[in-house]
Amino acid sequence: MPIPGMHWVGRMREDVASARLRDPAARGGLEIAILYPGLHAVWAHRVNHALWRRGLRFPARLGSQLARWLTGIEIHPGARIGRRFFIDHGMGVVIGETAEIGDDVMIYHGVTLGGRTRDAGKRHPTLGDGVAVGAGAKILGPVTVGARSVIGANAVVTKDAPADSVLVGVPAKARTRKPHDDTRALLTAPDYSI
Question: Is 145 helix (H, G, I), strand (E, B) or coil?
């Protein structure tokens, strides 16, 4: 018989381990759990998303606004987020209501997953598993970015991109990611930012 509450504790440990793996400045699990606002925003989102799905829209929005005030990261409670999602630094991140984020996604500060229209329905991006998004990038509209793609710093993505793409520029243009490309190097190399 499973231990009650073990599921959420296991997910939190998984999140801390994911942050430790992706952040070379991380010194330990306790430091990450206490001091990383990106994790706090994701943890708050899980609670707010559960409220949203149960139809408790006002408490969900209230919780998301409180998390925004505390972390500087705005995640709409309607957004769907996969496992091991990591937001590094995080200040200024905005994730819209109909955004969908796969597993093992990493984004940096100043990233927007926003809409381009006020129409009802799907109006925010979908990021596949393993996508990495550089600082200041804007992914706008109901576009899909395929798994394992890398979006360079300050890129503006307004069109779909296949899996294993590198997207850079304004507007972003996609090229096929080479097998030897290192995600961290792509996010910081001068060739991939503007």
Answer: strand
- pLDDT in single tens digits along all 194 residues of the chain: 344 555 888 888 888 988 888 888 888 888 888 889 999 999 999 999 999 999 999 999 999 999 999 999 999 999 999 999 999 988 999 999 999 999 999 999 999 999 998 888 899 999 999 999 999 999 999 999 999 999 999 999 999 999 999 999 989 888 888 776 665 555 554 444 44
Q: What is the CA radius of gyration of the chain?
A: 16
How many CA atoms does the CB half-sphere of 143 hold within 13 Å? 22
Query: Could you tell me how far CA 68 lies from the centroid of its own chain?
Result: 15
SS3 (DSSP) at 114:
strand
Length of the chain: 194
Q: Are 105 and 82 in contact (CB under 8 A)?
A: yes
Torsion, CA 8, CA 9, CA 12, CA 13, rounded to 10: -140
